[in-house]
Write a structure and sequence with these properties.
This protein is an alpha+beta fold and 892 residues long. The chain is built from 29 helices and 34 strands. The chain folds into 7 domains: 98 residues, Gcn5-related N-acetyltransferase (GNAT) (Aminopeptidase, 3-Layer(aba) Sandwich), CATH 3.40.630; 155 residues, 3-Layer(aba) Sandwich (Aminopeptidase), CATH 3.40.630.30; 122 residues, Aminopeptidase (3-Layer(aba) Sandwich), CATH 3.40.630.30; 71 residues, no CATH class; 101 residues, Aminopeptidase; 115 residues, Gcn5-related N-acetyltransferase (GNAT) (Aminopeptidase); 102 residues, Gcn5-related N-acetyltransferase (GNAT) (Aminopeptidase, 3-Layer(aba) Sandwich), CATH 3.40.630.30. This is N-acetyltransferase domain-containing protein.
């Protein structure tokens, strides 16, 4: 179909979700109740492949699944009837299966007439059977006991917390966030039964399912200690539903091999209640990893580099670009780690960071024009006695062509260092890599299989460090050539009380016996007047002297005095933690240029450590002129700091990188402190308008918390952080450092102090200008919230905006209340307001109606539809201001 478009993601507010919801209800899929249809688009675990028309965006079909606990559960696979039988379903199904993590168990539920199809495709293993019983509410009420239970909406905070812990204990999963969203839905109801000691003994919930007119309700979940308690806790829910709809029908689902099935199925069968069934099917998770239960062999092939390049050339994909990992920006590197995690189903971020920091390791990614990653591959050098080999692993890609395309880019890069290299590729049976094995075929210059079928072996966890098997492991490593020909002896140390007893000589000798004789040995030795270790090493095993390293200790105060006169005013110094992405990349490039080595990944790892501080130096043209780092060294109580590395164009530049100013940090200065006047002046100099009006600047010193830095020399204001704390939220209002004191670490120091003062259980929030967003997201506030909202009264809306408001209310409430709301807002006694985001999308609306005697000035705020409490309060505030004006006018 030329008019077909397939996408891998749609936003929760996309109209496709409404069309999908309508189709599910038309199909009569009652197990997916209204809470499922409402929450699925918004859950972080939801994944989708969606087919729609190009011309008008009309929904055609979708596969929707959720990924959690190493399971990919396919909840929906359906197409609009007129598009069935055209191959669209197979296309989106295959695309969905390919996107699921390879080590996840894929599961779904199928009605009996679809079972054979699913078993013959990707989910051959049959699981539990789900039984569905449908009955009139009065029938269920007749067997439900009457005991004192409590609706979830009536629970105290402490009781709700107890319910939350009960549900997590029953399910053995933390479902707190999901259940909170579930209970917040306006159409769900829940009930709790407490035992004599006021502990939760049972919990149940009910939710409408299918079309609103069907009056069908699904009873789920249901947790209890006994059948009696189960029927007791559901009684108030059934009574409530019966009072709303006399023809209401209740649906109960139970899975085979559960206690619910054991108790409920015989009971419902004895009452002649109709039953429907669907069956779970899944794919063996081991097979998706290339390791089925019978233990798959690993096939390793060697192929000459030139042959491999020629072979992969034709698979190059012109719509993608290849980029070397060593050239990636920090954001691109993080995106690569996320992609590897999504594809493999495992968080290998730390391992991959270490992997790409190794010397000689090369990596590449495959990206489309929009910068989205479609593949990752790596090549690791393996030096043997006869040749240089490159092991191609890992390789993550969406299909065989993608894998070959990215491998080709790596091979071309390797060829620059010599065309005689050998590529080594290992693949498993029944894995995607098996296609690559067949492609290499006759071009292989060596193939061998490592299998486990005929090997009698045992697996042991955490063998002791002195186990003899370590010797075999080391020898195997050396035999394989998994080193680069250099042994660097980093540490040789004995406790003082055991020196002179020949222990040192023995472990030194043992170490030398383990090192291959063909390897170059290197170390650094201490030289002093008492015991020159340098002469000792030169006389024995290290006759060749290399570069000298001189280490000096100096008090920080003395070093500051040395540095001060040499600080160059034409340079600007800035902490590495405060650099923009572009500036950080420039700093890495500068270090690579100065050292003649690519140290990008190493420096990224260094500056990621909490105990490392760095500073960069730029001239008036923003050109990088120096880079330095300082880290703690030695025992903590010794307060030693090591300055390293230090790269600079000259001595003055190096010293400029270490300039300082003496200052002190004060907590919560008094509202009448003169520093507030300087603070206000600094705010005005920056031109801050939003949230910096006169009333805010006057009230914040009185109502808020603050951390302020001032100069020890003259008491001058240097910088400050101000925030307010309310209802578990710490809102950071201002974070400012005078321009001339930026880059000296003052900002980081007061920010850190402020965070230490904020209660640990509080959520920290702030607003940021666009050019600082990346900085805050990469530090202490990674979650981006809502952008500024604008409010508008309903009577000021355009016709299109009013229709959008009606659609929004239908989406949020799950009911079509258009006619009711049109009548509501036509009344003279009502006033409504709507909140729009910067994209003109509605994020909430509310209405206020006068009620009671006119002179009493009583107003009812209802309905209120909003995506969060903040949006709700924003739109309500708009109405309250209007009410206040009205009351003041009436009183006057």
């Amino acid at each position: 179909m030329e008019n077909l478009e397939i996408v891998d993601h749609v936003e929760p507010d996309d109209r496709a979700w409404l069309e999908w919801k309508t189709l599910v209800e038309d199909e009569g899929w009652t197990s997916d109740d209204l809470s499922v249809l409402t929450l699925t688009p918004k859950l972080p675990s939801t994944r989708t492949v969606l087919a729609r028309r190009k011309d008008d965006g009309k929904f055609i079909g979708t596969v929707i699944w959720n990924e959690y606990d190493e399971v990919a559960f396919i909840g929906f696979y359906l197409l609009v009837p007129e598009y069935r039988g055209k191959g669209i379903g197979s296309t989106i199904w295959r695309r969905a299966i390919d996107r699921m993590p390879k080590n996840y168990t894929i599961a779904l539920r199928a009605v009996p007439d679809m079972a054979a199809r699913y078993r013959s495709m990707d989910t051959p293993v049959q699981g539990s059977v789900q039984h569905m019983y449908k009955m009139h509410w009065t029938k269920l009420l007749s067997i439900a006991e009457s005991k004192a239970s409590k609706l979830v909406s009536d629970l105290t905070d402490a009781e709700y917390q107890q319910l939350d812990e009960f549900c997590n204990w029953v399910t053995k999963r933390n479902r707190s966030d999901f259940l909170r969203k579930f209970h917040d839905l306006p159409f769900t109801m829940g009930a709790v039964l407490f035992d004599r000691s006021q502990k939760v003994g049972a919990f149940a919930a009910i939710c409408p399912t299918s079309h609103e007119s069907s009056h069908l309700f699904k009873l789920a979940p249901l947790y209890s200690w006994s059948l009696g308690e189960a029927f007791a806790v559901i009684r108030p829910l059934i009574e409530k539903i019966g009072s709303l709809h006399d023809d209401a029908q209740i649906l109960i689902h139970t899975l085979s091999e559960t206690i619910g099935a054991h108790l409920l199925i015989p009971l419902f069968n004895s009452l002649d209640i109709p039953i429907k069934q669907c069956v779970e099917y899944m794919i063996d998770r081991y097979k998706t990893m290339g390791f089925p239960v019978e233990a798959q062999p690993v096939v390793t092939q060697k192929i000459r580099l030139a042959d491999f390049i020629e072979m992969t050339k034709s698979s190059s994909l012109p719509q993608f670009d290849a980029k070397l990992v060593s050239s990636l920006k920090p954001t691109e590197f993080e995106a690569m780690l996320t992609y590897a995690k999504d594809v493999s189903g495992r968080n290998t971020s730390h391992l991959l960071r270490l992997h790409f920091d190794l010397p000689g390791v090369k990596g590449a990614i495959l990206v489309d024009k929009a910068g989205k990653i479609h593949g990752v591959a790596s090549a690791t050098p393996v030096r043997t006695r006869n040749d240089i080999q490159y092991k191609i692993a890992p390789v993550y890609a969406e299909d065989n062509n993608g894998a070959l395309s990215i491998i080709h880019s790596l091979l071309v890069e390797i060829q620059k260092e010599g065309s005689e290299a050998i590529a080594v590729v290992s693949t498993w049976n029944d894995s995607a890599g098996e296609q690559l094995r067949q492609l290499i075929g006759e071009k292989s210059i060596g193939t061998w299989t490592l299998g486990m079928k005929d090997v009698d072996y045992e697996i042991v966890d955490n063998i002791a460090p002195d186990d003899a098997i370590w010797e075999e492991w080391k020898q195997t490593m050396f035999d394989e050539g998994w080193c680069n020909g250099l042994v660097y002896i980093a540490y040789y140390i004995l406790r003082k009380e055991y020196r002179g007893l020949e222990i040192g000589s023995l472990i030194w000798k043992r170490a030398f016996e383990l090192i291959p004789s063909t390897y170059t040995l290197a170390l650094r030795a201490v030289r002093n007047s008492v015991d020159s270790m340098l002469s000792r090493y030169k006389a024995k095993d290290f006759p060749v002297e290399g570069q000298h390293v001189v280490t000096k200790r100096i008090p920080v105060a003395d070093l500051i005095e040395i540095v001060k006169p040499r600080v160059q005013s034409m340079f600007n110094s800035k902490l590495v933690s405060e650099l923009s992405m572009k500036e950080f990349e420039a700093a890495l490039s500068y270090a690579n240029e100065v050292t003649g080595q690519d140290r990008s990944h190493l420096l990224r790892a260094v500056f990621d450590m909490d105990f490392v501080k760095g500073a960069a130096l730029t001239d008036e043209t923003s050109k990088m002129r120096g880079l330095a780092a300082i880290t703690t060294a030695g025992p903590r109580e010794g307060r030693l700091y090591k300055i390293s590395p230090l790269y600079a164009d000259g001595l003055d530049e190096a010293l400029s990188n270490m300039r300082d100013v003496e200052y002190e940090i004060l907590n919560n200065i008094s509202p009448n402190d003169p520093l507030w006047i300087e603070w206000k002046g600094a705010i005005r100099e920056e031109g801050w308008v939003n949230g910096a009006d006169d009333s805010a600047l006057q009230l914040l010193p009185i109502l808020g918390k603050n951390v302020t830095a001032r100069s020890k020399a003259d008491g001058r204001f240097l910088g400050a952080v101000q925030w307010s704390e309310n209802d578990g939220l710490a809102c950071m209002a201002f974070y400012i450092v005078r321009a001339e004191y930026r880059g000296l670490g003052i900002g980081s120091a007061i920010w850190k102090r402020a965070l230490e003062l904020v209660p640990s259980e509080y959520t920290i929030g702030l607003r940021s200008v666009a050019n600082m967003v990346e900085h805050y997201k990469s530090t202490t506030t990674p979650v981006e919230g809502q952008r500024d909202l604008t409010t508008k009264f309903v009577n000021h809306l355009s016709a299109d905006e009013f229709e959008s408001m009606l659609s929004y209310s239908k989406e949020v409430s799950g009911k079509d209340r258009s006619r009711l709301l049109q009548l509501h807002f036509n009344l003279d006694c009502t006033k409504g307001a709507v909140a729009f985001d910067p994209n003109s999308l509605i994020r909430g609306f509310a209405s206020v109606t006068s009620t009671g005697p006119r002179e009493a000035h009583i107003y009812k705020i209802a309905p209120v539809y909003a995506e969060s409490i903040d949006v709700a309060l924003t739109v309500i505030h708009c109405l309250l201001v209007e009410i206040e004006k009205k009351v003041e006018f009436a009183n006057s």
